[in-house]
Each structure stands twice: as C-alpha cells, then as structure tokens.
Prior knowledge:
Blueprint: H1 2-22, H2 34-46, H3 50-57, H4 66-79, E1 85-95, E2 98-106, E3 112-122, E4 127-130
Antiparallel strand pairs: 1-2, 2-3, 3-4
Amino acid sequence: xxxxxxxxxxxxxxxxxxxxxxxxxxxxxxxxxxxxxxxxxxxxxxxxxxxxxxxxxxxxxxxxxxxxxxxxxxxxxxxxxxxxxxxxxxxxxxxxxxxxxxxxxxxxxxxxxxxxxxxxxxxxxxxxxxxxxxxxxxxxxxxxxxxxxxxx
Length: 152
C-alpha cells in the first residue's frame, strides 16, 4: 500500500510541474527596449533601407508582411535620407501596453524636428507594433449613420 501512495504522490508532483511550465505568463512590456528600437528605426530611415525597415517594423521577420513593406515605403518616402540624429528621446505610457514616443532629431540642415510615434506591446506575441503611418481606412458598414451635415 505504501508503494501505491508513493507512486500517486510522485505522479502528482510530476503533473503539477508540467502544468506550471505550460501556463507561463506572457512577457510584460519593457519600456527600456523602446529607445534602442527607435534608434534602429532612425538609422534605417537615414539609410533609406526599405527592406530593413520593413523587417524592423515586422519584428525582424525574414519575410515581412505586405503591410509592413507598404508602411516602410511610406516612412522612407516621408522621412528617409535626412541624416537625422536623435537629440532627445522621451516616452510616456498612454494606455496599458501603449506608449507615445517623442523623438527630437536634427537633420542635415541642423534644424530640430519632433517625431511623435505611438507604439504598443502585444504580450501574446512578445513584440512591439508601431502604429502605421497611414492606417488603412475601411468603409463604414451599410446603413451606418453619417457625420455629414444635411444640405438645406
């Protein structure tokens, strides 16, 4: 009888250990990762590296998504090749897992410029997502109320 109890107790310990390992919690956001992330972002913009920026925006994916490629192309067109240097970097938590980064840069002209970006942490994927520069808009559902003023 003692052998059976020992076996059952040992089995319970093994099951508890396996269950504890399976239920690992998602990695929390670490705001300290943001400055290096954005410095890399600025370097890729300066280099006008569409592919590199798309990979960076898509969490260093070998084959970035089409959305990341489109967003990278738009960002390089708007900000690329300016020789920006980061002068000041400030983040503020705006919502749970969401931060606003205010990046003061100087370009080749020496004139300071402020870039404001919103980035969010997705714990289930353990990665940062930068809001798209030009988010895609979707048409309103049919029958949705209009915000247009009625004509007189």
